Amino acid sequence: MKILLHLLFPLAMIGALCAKDRKPNFVFLLVDDLGWGDFGCYGAEFYETPQIDKLASEGMQFSNGYAACTVCSPSRAAILSGSYPARLHLTDWITGHKHPFAKLRVPDWKIRIDHQRVLMPEALKEGGYRTAFFGKWHLMPIGQPDFDQHYPTDHGFDINVGGREWGQPKGRGKYFSPFDMPGLDDGKAGDFLTDKLTDAALDFLDQTKRDQPFLLYFSYYTLHGPLMAPPELVAKYKEKAKTFENTKNELLDPRRAGMVEKLDDSVGRIMAKLDELGIADNTVVILTGDNGGDSPKTTGGLRDYKGLSHEGGVREPFIVKWPGRIAPKSSCDEMVIGTDFYPTLLEMAGLPARPDEHADGVSILPLLTGATKELERDALFWHYPHYHRTKPYGAIRRGDMKLIEFFEGGNLELYDLKTDPGEKNNLAKQHPEKAQALLKELKAWRKSVDAQMPSENPNHDPSRGGKNKQGKKMGK
């Protein structure tokens, strides 16, 4: 027996070293319209997310994770490219709102990612990875001649299941069968979209080769409207809402709560499959969102929500698990943003950086491994030269200070996020020197990335300037 143990121990050590040297697999989970307050690990009490909370406890949870925009398409493009939407000139959801009589004219922005760019899945594919996309894409030039040249499979993914021009489910059954999505069978009556996409993702995992690393990029349509959930879950949360003490002013919509539970169930199924296949220890799992939730009651007390300039529109849950490399139950307060994923995944995979591509991303691997608690980068930027619920604006966060500049009249808002995370106290007039210093830095950054700015609109009609083409009033 002793001789056998002496023989087996070196073999086990060699196996462990080989496993450590293998390129890791990546499971990237991107949730649509995900509010800061939607998960239990981020403070939710009405919604039930045991699987996501478990994932957070097994890795690192960030408290200052950000989307690159308050709406979907630019944020998604930033993740894939590692570049700010301002640099890409892709700055609104495709195809955006129309406000022909507003004070400012929106610039001629792009509604596609240039093929000349090498995106994250393309870089990983060149490094030997198999790549698969599931869910919402929303990065296609609707109504343009090159429309069919911008599917996920045209930008580095080997497989596309569900990705098309839609920003939300628009099939005949929406979140229920039939789905009308590429690569996804309609299943049977009553089948729920999140479940069906998860089935497809699990099938992909079953078919992966153990000697080839993979990127599974699961871009959920949920939690985007229309709010729909299986009847049994709607009934469950209707009953729960009757006696729930809503001390945190959460959104008690049984349909959305059911959608969150289905999301949580999906995450749990994926994690279980990784365990079943024996590849969990060599798989990085990332979970985040593209922009804030579509209600002020989904943001955990942060101000505003999707489409607005304040924290509720861009601060996101941000969770990363990598067994053996990231300490369980770890947390990080450093500012990170969607552009950082591209260089981070390359470094994790042992592939060379591509600074000309991920020009605005910074690898956060040193944060994840505990090698450092701070990045060399000191500031984050946002640029939204469009009308939505908000009017056109730009923003900078340097340290704890955040400045917002509204382009119509040059109004400034300055907040200390350390003492005022809800952005209730505008310090711009109280500290004009600080506001002007940040404004100068913001303008310099815009110049450095060739950001497109709105211009004066010769067709401006004050009586109709606050309405879009369909005559509906804008928000803030």
From TrEMBL:
InterPro entries: Alkaline_phosphatase_core_sf, Sulfatase, Sulfatase_N. Residues 466-476 have a biased composition (Basic residues). Its cofactor is Ca(2+). Residues 24-350 form the Sulfatase N-terminal domain. Pfam families: Sulfatase. It comes from the Bacteria. Residues 446-476 are annotated as: Disordered. Residues 1-19 form the signal peptide. Keywords: Calcium, Hydrolase, Metal-binding, Signal. Transmembrane segments: none annotated. Belongs to the sulfatase family. This is Sulfatase. It comes from Haloferula chungangensis.
